[in-house]
Amino acid sequence: MNKMNRRKFLLGASGSMLALPWLELLAENPITKAIKEPPLRFASFYSPMGFVRDHFFPEEGNEDFLSMPTLSSLKKVGDKVNMITGLYRVNVRGVDVHNQASSCYLSSQNPHEELKSSYPMDRTLDHLIADKVSHRTPIRSLELNCNSFKDLKESIYLDNISWYGPEQVASTIKDPRKVYQRLFKTNKSNKDITDLILADAKNFKRNLGNQDKHKLDEYFTSVREIEKQIEKLNEYHRRHKKPDIEEPTEGPMTRGEYIRLMGQLLVVAFQGDLTHVATFMLAPERWGSPQVYHELNFTSSHHGLTHGQSRKDVKARLVQVDKFYVDLFAGVLEHMDSIKEGEGTLLDHSIVTLGSGLGDGEYHTLDELPIIMAGSANGKIKTGRMIKCPKHTPLANLWLSQAQLMGTGMTKFADSSGPLKGLL
């Protein structure tokens, strides 16, 4: 056991791989005793077309943002969440604002400089961070996308927030089965990955204390549960011919189940140190086709709803969609916070942001962007509060702060004027 390093992996007979979660044994081992705390993880969630503002932002003088209807589901982890107001992005005139909103959300291009493409995009924040931390994990970064549309007729810029560079998209994974295969390197001929690895784990577990044994069992249980859901999906496709329609109203998973499973995969990837960097699109930016919201019992165009807010019934539906996505995000945070790690939880050792590239989906504004940030970055961020930035504070200031917390050593990001004041 003295030769075990931080990234110890268990291998099954087929060569399938499963990384270990953070264990007390690793922290106490002479080889790894220099590690004082679990590694920091970074995740950026994107929700399209902003949020209904009077249901998201509290009125002036009220700092209880968790009392807002759209954000109420965050209360269970409210002491580990911040709302950040006053952030904005420059709108480059003459090019589509929706394409800018998503493709340039995490961009490192300064919009005031000569552009390298039609939009102010460059290597995005997630990849600048991965450049510095990917040596710690077997997977450099994870790009997840919950776009279930089959037409894919819209612009590539609307469907991606992660870019290697100008016009160099980092392709996302939209199928949970492919995410699972990416994480655990399985194929259809393999036995159940957990069965393969548990055999190797038996000897390993004998050397663990009770707390570590519990953590390992908890991790295997999470992987097993995902396997069961993937197999259920596989069985459905074996029995049913795929319908030739853009968005089936019935299928193996509802929209909520689909996004929830993708979130579980992200958490397991972080828990097992398979990757420390991820992006997660809850839905694409402006999209022409209607979306089925199974849990909400209606089908509608999210983009269309944003432009009908003057009607009470349309606005009410839009608020439902906003809350639907925030509820799913809250579920990911709760899952992360339930996983004990070191002196805290997986959420404590992370920087997880939910935001949108538009401040207002109806009027296409890029100021007062809706930003929720969770996790204390190993205790460096003071949480459970509203951080009110001066009006027109560059969003890039927040991204610069996150890059610095992740250990990149960066001193400038896009049009940043410095690290975000009041964050730490």
Secondary structure topology:
Elements: E1 9-11, E2 17-19, H1 24-28, E3 41-46, H2 53-56, E4 81-88, H3 97-103, H4 125-133, E5 142-145, E6 163-165, E7 168-169, H5 176-184, H6 193-205, H7 210-239, H8 255-271, E8 277-281, E9 291-293, E10 298-300, H9 302-306, H10 312-337, E11 340-341, E12 344-345, E13 350-355, E14 371-374, E15 385-394, H11 395-405
Parallel strand pairs: 3-8, 3-13, 4-15, 5-8
Antiparallel strand pairs: 1-2, 4-14, 6-7, 9-10, 11-12, 13-14
Q: How many DSSP helices?
A: 11
The helix/strand series, from N terminus to C terminus, equals: EEHEHEHHEEEHHHHEEEHHEEEEEH
Could you give the count of β-strands?
15
The tally of structural domains comes to: 1
Please give the share of residues in helix: 25-40%
Strand order of the largest sheet: 5-8-3-13-14-4-15
Low-confidence stretches: 1-7, 30-34, 242-250
Structural class: alpha/beta
Q: Which whole number gives the mean pLDDT?
A: 86
Distance between the termini: 38 Å
Largest sheet: 7 strands, mixed
Rounded to an integer, what's the Rg over CA atoms? 21 Å
Q: What is the beta-strand fraction?
A: 15-25%
Shape: globular
